[in-house]
Amino acid sequence: MAITAExxxxxxxxxxxxxxxxxxxxxxxxxxxxxSDVTVQISSEDxxxxxxxxxxxxTRTFLQEISKCRPGVIGSEDIKQNEKDLVVNNSWSRxxxxxxxxxxxxxxxxxxxxxxxSSSTMVSDNACLLSEQKxxxxxxxxxxxxxxxxxxxxxxxxxxxxxxxxxxxxxxxxESLQPWLSHDVEPPDVYCVGFQxxxxxxxxxxxxDTPKEEEWFKAVTDSLHPDAKYAKVKLVRLVGMLLLLYVKxxxxxxxxxxxxxTVGTGIMGRMGNKGGVAIRFKFHNTSVCIVNSHLxxxxxxxxxxxxxxxxxxxxxxxxxxxxxxxxxxxxxxxxILWLGDLNYRIEQLEVETVKMHIKKEKFQDLxxxxxxxxxxxxxxxxxxxxxxxxxxxxxxxxxxxxDDWDTSEKCRAPxxxxxxxxxxxxxxxxxxxxxxALKSSDHKPVSSMFDIGVKVVNEELYRKAFEEIxxxxxxxxxxxxxxxxxxxxxxxxxxxxYMQLQVETFTIRNGQMPCQFEFINKLDEDTYCKEWLIxxxxxxxxxxxxxxxxxLELFVNKxxxxxxxxxxxxxxxxxxxxxxxxxxxxxxVMGNYLPSCFGSPIQTLCYMREPIRDMxxxxxxxxxxxxxxxxxxxxxxxxxxxxxKELWMMVDHLYRNASQQEDLFQQxxxxxxxxxxxxxxxxxMLDALLGSNHSVAxxxxxxxxxxxxxxxxxxLYNNCLHCANIYTSSSQVxxxxxxxxxxxxxxxxxxxxxxxxxxxKNHLDVNILASIFGGxxxxxxxxxxxxxxxxxxxxxxxxxxxxxxxxxxx
Length: 810
Known about the structure:
Elements: E1 21-25, E2 38-44, E3 47-53, H1 57-69, E4 88-89, H2 113-118, H3 134-148, H4 150-153, E5 154-167, H5 178-181, E6 190-196, H6 202-207, H7 212-223, E7 230-238, E8 241-248, E9 255-264, E10 275-283, E11 286-294, H8 302-315, E12 317-318, E13 328-329, E14 335-341, H9 351-359, H10 363-367, H11 371-377, E15 418-424, E16 427-434, E17 446-457, H12 459-476, E18 484-486, E19 490-496, E20 502-510, E21 515-520, E22 533-536, E23 539-542, E24 547-554, H13 558-566, E25 572-579, E26 584-593, H14 602-606, H15 617-624, H16 645-657, H17 671-683, H18 693-706, H19 717-722, H20 727-735, H21 739-756, H22 759-762, H23 766-777, H24 789-803
Parallel strand pairs: 1-4, 5-6, 11-14, 19-26
Antiparallel strand pairs: 1-2, 2-3, 5-17, 6-8, 7-8, 9-10, 10-11, 12-13, 14-15, 16-17, 18-20, 20-24, 21-23, 21-25, 22-24, 25-26
Helix pairs in contact: 3-12, 16-18, 17-18, 23-24
């Protein structure tokens, strides 16, 4: 089972003094497996510890650092064995009586079966060799060649995977989950169990805090198949999305490289009420990624669901144990299992027609109207994935506590919202079903059982492949320095816009020598590129005569827009591509940025009577660099606008069109519509904003987030927190704001109070609006630590006071 930093606490310190030793040992209970943990015996004059460390580069680095810490050690050549000096024995041999005792080191080419167990790709007799610079490259070369030869030393063995998904509608567990989790006679080898809407409270939504995580974890653990013992490998949660991974206890040692990540795709592209959580791991020699997602709701919003899926795929990245390797994306796995409330609906049919098809069990006829099927047929989403035949009735929407269809005022049409899909080879679906016995939610749980062919290593064949690679590598080393050919070295990004990704690609073609490449920092710079640029991948490894495609992604966001708007910074950068043991290549990146109201200061926009795209670069720079106007004194000849016209356009649109819009400021809009809204604000080409109310609302939030100086200035942040429950003091703080900031604050509060008058229709309340706008209008200064839950609550309380007071309409 994977152990992370938060699982460990420090109870005792073992000083590195004379008599200290750290040796790798192999306990009797250990299995000979690839990528297993490393057991290290640490001893000093008065203590002896045996610790298990995860296999990989972090452990190698740890042992390496220990070797440097002993007082008096000047170089790695001073590391010795069987003496009082520090011992870091990294050989993989075992003594004849197979005990967990120190072992004699082997010579470099004396390859043993214990090396196979470790899957170490560098045969070394002690830790001093790990410090050689070429270790990383040699390690990577052998790993890459082992992957190429994988079929020669592995065989497929089927393991049974249970995949389950359940939207619990904010309920606590009230019934046993065994009818869902233990339906089959034979216990599965692996359980992957996902939940959505674990907690619908505002606490969970805004602070990601819920007691229901523990409740459902216990309910699942108590309902696993009774004929097997299971070990929990990992739990990951984002707001209401929870994913649990269990394996049979006797498989636990075959699980390695466990990582978990989350991606929020809710409002502003980050709120966690929608999005995905994922766990990736290696089972024997097969990489597996499990994704649990909750996509956008409402029948008409299938494009938003498609966008959520793409965002999860592009943003979900897992760190690798080897820091020299780039992060892994979902697609870089042998097996991908995707489950969740995907929210795709049945369209073009009346509710009664849908129910009639269900009553007659004409599921395949009904399936032709399923949105997910249509979108997959058009390759708009889940391209390359497979879903089994649906032979069960829709899993949504039921009256809670029974099997009757929704009889609420909205009378939702039945739909197959809850789905399980897969991608990869050697996957056979054994069942795909819903479980009507569970009635505590408005959804029914769904499960699927799979037989998945997992690559299991034959250690004798692995040893032979390993020996062959190491020997051939010894002959190859130092034969030549690596060299590559770049398809392009100069790049120009034309008409870059705020929050609109642009991508340019080029290829690196390798020559006759294995090659490790990396973009490196320039002199006196902390990163290899400017903040608005990223190379993907930024480092990697190439076998002889192979090539890789590099994507240069340019994306301007709130942290870079202001300086680009003002012209203080330009889209210009030089990238240095470095080859290990080879030369450096220089790439030129340039572009032109179209200035935007997003990222511009409030005061700057108040002085702009023309659209920002019509302003000269010199005028924008002059206005952006104006000091904040703290009084009614006017810096320039003309009087500024009371509030930015761009802000007025968005608020006026929402005031006139969206006062009764359900889920306003909680449901995301479409990215394409945001781009239209941004262009309209920046050019004033149209008198009215395009796009849905949700898209305009999200654009307003993104606008407030992008302000380089928030509506309530950084200098007053602590004052606001101190008087969060005292209205008179809070009003005094607001009165201290620069005139244009004060106008914007009062204008927004008046608008939000108007929305609250329609709360029966839009379902907004004071807590929701205060939480959303509190984090945008009242932001901590740049050098301030990220606000904790207490600070977030105080920001919420500060805004809440003004929403509960009567005021004028916008």
